[in-house]
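Quick one - inputs below.
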Amino acid sequence: MTLFEQKILDLVRKIPQGKITTYEKIALKLGNKYLVRFIGNCLAKNLHLITIPCHRVVRKDQKVGNYALGVAKKINLLQNEGIIIKRGKIVNFNKVLYDFNLN
DNA sequence: ACGACGGCCCTCG
DNA sequence: ACGAGGGCCGTCG
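Output:
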């Protein structure tokens, strides 16, 4: 695992239970928006590290996005944390959105 | 709503 | 060592 990937995972690990963030926010935090593709790539590969709550990272358009264990699993996990999802979209998106810049 | 393409870092040939 | 391809995305047509 590279240093850059570590940085991504470190950020994801900071997302509290019941909150979400977007691929784009992480990308911007780390530099530029085109990183979104690599971020997805990285999370997909490192899912075996259970300590990283990959399911709390979603798409900017309020869809949940993809997940290595299946989208259904991702939705389940999110709903267990109080996030409301309807037809694949997060209903209370703005309320549960976590902002890294609050630190 | 859908498809194309962008410019990322990594992996693999 | 180098170049092509790939991926849990986002934007614009």
